[in-house]
Specification:
Helix content: 25-40%
Number of strands: 12
Strand content: 15-25%
Strand order of the largest sheet: 3-2-1-4-5-6-12-9
Structural class: alpha/beta
Order of helices and strands: EHEHEHEHEHHEHEHHEHEEEEH
Radius of gyration: 20 Å
Distance between the termini: 36 Å
Shape: globular
């Protein structure tokens, strides 16, 4: 579980340099042009710390304009956080991450519902739902909008139930759902229902069965491909200053907790939410698309209560990703962390003098 901030000062020996979204002061060579797409991030930040890596990586990616960070809930009996206020805890975690990064744009952080949908026709009201609808229905921008979800689908489903017009205005990229027949097989001793879908199976049914939302799915067999070694995390993440050490320590905390239950420590960890960055911020220059990853295009199936897929005649098409470019994804993350730390660690210049990054 991600450790929930207590309100005490950040455990770092130096104050973070401050910046706002739209700025990239850590880049010695400024980015060319502005963002190509808008992104709404939705994640259960009180749960598995892989979402912290995704959040930081997205925030350091200038090709996307982060419009909202939705702090969403876990299931009520989740061992990561069974407090009943996991969305509120997720919001506290997101704000803590912004503070650690010196990022002042905290107005984009909004809380989702603490509860799943009661049925397939009743939305759960939350500040996030209103914010999602407002961003999706903007008529003053033409850039594409991606809704990237690394947990359950409560808030995007609630937004759709409240105003179905959003389906025409965004693409949902979701980390979740089980394996598709003919594409992959489940892992040994799998959960009966895939973890992210189990957070709110009814919301999954709203999105898959009832909505017209364009969908790119990264199912369990693919997000499990996103393994990094402990050596990578020690050298390339923990070595990247206070922010990197925080990210490393959150994974180490979980690994220490589960080691006795899983027969010992592992030398790998799945940063399974990172494809959300790869598929949106790291698209190709020409004919923009996540062209280094692979997917199949198939009719969107219906989801059963058990998470199983069933064919639907005439259903809208969806992308099911079968392989993601982990080299591009993780190397980009490591280098951005290193660039960011170099800027954070550089001596402050005197007034009127340019900063020099070594």
């Amino acid at each position: 579980m991600t450790q929930i901030p207590s309100g005490s000062p950040r455990p770092t020996g130096r104050p973070a340099r401050t910046w706002s979204l739209g700025e990239t002061p850590w880049q010695q060579i400024p980015p060319v042009g502005g963002p190509r797409a808008r992104v709404i991030i939705d994640n259960d930040f009180a749960g598995d710390p892989d979402d912290l890596y995704q959040l930081v990586h997205h925030l350091l990616s200038p090709s996307v304009d982060i419009r909202l960070v939705v702090a969403s809930h876990l299931r009520g009996d989740d061992p990561f956080d069974s407090s009943g206020r996991s969305a509120q805890n997720a919001e506290a975690v997101a704000r803590d991450v912004f503070s650690r990064m010196g990022l002042t744009s905290t107005d984009i952080i909004v809380a989702g519902s603490d509860d799943p949908l009661p049925d397939r026709s009743s939305p759960q009201p939350a500040p996030a739902v209103d914010a999602i609808i407002a961003e999706a229905l903007r008529d003053d921008v033409s850039s594409p909008l991606f809704y990237v979800a690394g947990g359950g689908l409560t808030d995007i489903a609630s937004a759709y139930l409240t105003d179905p017009r959003i389906a025409e205005r965004l693409t949902l990229v979701w980390i979740g759902g089980g394996e598709h027949d003919g594409l992959a097989v489940p892992p040994p001793n799998p959960m009966p229902v895939e973890y992210n879908l189990l957070i709110d199976p009814v919301a999954g049914q709203v999105v898959f069965n009832d909505s017209t939302i364009p969908l790119w799915q990264v199912p369990r067999d693919v997000y499990r491909q996103c393994l990094v070694s402990d050596a990578e995390l020690r050298v390339r993440v923990a070595g990247a200053g206070p922010l990197g050490r925080y990210l490393y320590d959150e994974v180490a905390y979980v690994c220490a907790m589960v080691a006795s239950h899983l027969g010992g420590a592992s030398e790998t960890y799945a940063l399974g939410d990172s494809p959300l960055v790869l598929l949106t911020a790291l698209q190709s220059v020409f004919e923009p698309d996540p062209s280094s990853s692979r997917y199949v295009r198939r009719p969107t199936p219906a989801l059963g209560e058990d998470g199983a897929y069933s064919d639907v005649a005439g259903a809208r098409p969806m992308r099911v990703y079968t392989w993601v470019d982990t080299r591009l994804m993780f190397e980009d993350m490591y280098l951005k962390l290193a660039e960011f730390e170099r800027w954070q660690a550089a001596p402050h210049a005197a007034p009127g003098e340019p900063e020099v990054l070594s």
